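Tokens in:
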């Protein structure tokens, strides 16, 4: 292992990771940056995002997270700060631990090893997908066209005056249906539990009944649509019922990419999200978390940015304070 110690290592190249790298570089701190292996990228939420309508100045991008992120990384690599930026393209981190000097020992997917003083972990999450016809691939065209969607805050407004279906069976799925119905006056709202028993709480069930939200518990047999998922028509159920829907949201929970946090023994919440303070500092010294991976944050681009800026700025404060102390002692 080379003995070089990088100041800050940013792991993840989505909204949080790119902002963490940008802020670290603009703070004039050295940044070792992993955007993820092709396998990591395939599993990232950023990959699914097309048009972004809830963040100003993003309408022009075809891939609302990937395109502006690549633009930013290119700018850093051409900027006056480029020598401080160590980007490991198409490369992920496979293991991480603390050594006896309290430094992070990092191993990447090409089996290279690094040392870093601080880490900002931004590995994100992925939405659980429904199995239809025995596979999750049935939804891919619709997910790509965002007629079957996942993010209520970002894309909920697409259901305005539209017949809508929620795929899911728990209380969160019920609340997704209630919120969209109340906000956008959907002429028909259906919850498709895809063969599962609903687990709605009594107060939630009251609203489901009040709003005439249909709950269909039969397995989904087929999705009907046109133009490679750009148009959604509805869902055929195993009992031959056809549920008309022009838009659908999946609400089945999230897979949290907390493997590296677990390797370091960071504290997680009951759903597996990594706990961090206001600046994202975790229970492990020097380890910060930002973006969707962080517990109790809204899963959005601008919250990922905000977390990332807080983490990079808190780290810069520690670096400057340590440097200042050394100068005052006459060591520099
Ligand atoms: C369909 C859909 C549409 C959405 N639309 C919007 C929208 O319009 N507006 C909005 O604000 N939000 C939207 N979101 C939410 C938004 O995508 C997330 O909030 C945002 O991507 C979170 O950023 P992140 O950096 O935490 O995670 P991600 O963007 O998921 O990035 C995670 C990164 O970590 C990398 N990674 C994972 N493991 C490793 C590893 N071991 N080593 C190195 N790298 C690793 C991946 O390659 C990836 O680059 C949408 C989400 C979905 C699913």
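Residues out:
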């Amino acid at each position: 292992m080379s003995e070089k110690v990088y100041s800050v290592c940013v792991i993840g190249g989505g909204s949080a990771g790119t902002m963490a790298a940008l802020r670290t570089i603009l703070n004039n701190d050295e940044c070792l940056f992993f955007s993820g292996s092709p396998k990591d990228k395939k599993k990232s939420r950023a990959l699914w995002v097309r048009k972004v309508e809830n963040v100003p100045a993003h309408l022009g991008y075809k891939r609302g997270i990937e395109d502006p992120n690549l633009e930013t990384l290119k700018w850093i690599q051409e900027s006056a700060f480029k020598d401080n930026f160590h980007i490991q393209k198409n490369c992920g981190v496979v293991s991480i631990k603390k050594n006896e000097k309290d430094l992070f020992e990092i191993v990447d997917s090409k089996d290279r090893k690094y040392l870093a003083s601080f880490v900002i972990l931004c590995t994100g999450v992925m939405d659980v997908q429904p199995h239809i016809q025995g596979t999750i691939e049935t939804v891919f065209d619709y997910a790509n066209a965002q007629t079957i969607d996942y993010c209520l805050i970002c894309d909920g407004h697409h259901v305005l005056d539209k017949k809508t279906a929620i795929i899911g069976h728990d209380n969160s799925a019920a609340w997704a249906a209630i919120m969209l119905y109340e906000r956008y006056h959907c002429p028909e709202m259906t919850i498709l539990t895809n063969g599962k028993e609903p687990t709605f709480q009594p107060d939630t069930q009251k609203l489901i009944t009040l709003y005439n939200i249909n709950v269909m518990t039969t397995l989904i047999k087929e999705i009907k649509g046109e133009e490679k998922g750009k148009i959604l028509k509805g869902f055929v159920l195993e009992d031959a019922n056809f549920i008309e829907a022009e838009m659908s949201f999946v609400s089945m929970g999230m897979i949290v990419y907390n493997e590296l946090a677990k390797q370091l023994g960071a504290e997680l919440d009951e759903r597996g999200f990594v706990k961090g303070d206001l600046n994202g500092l975790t229970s492990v010294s020097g380890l910060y978390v930002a973006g969707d991976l962080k517990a109790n944050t809204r899963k959005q681009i601008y919250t990922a940015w905000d977390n990332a800026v807080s983490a990079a700025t808190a780290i810069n404060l520690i670096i400057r304070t340590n440097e200042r102390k050394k100068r005052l002692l006459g060591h520099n």
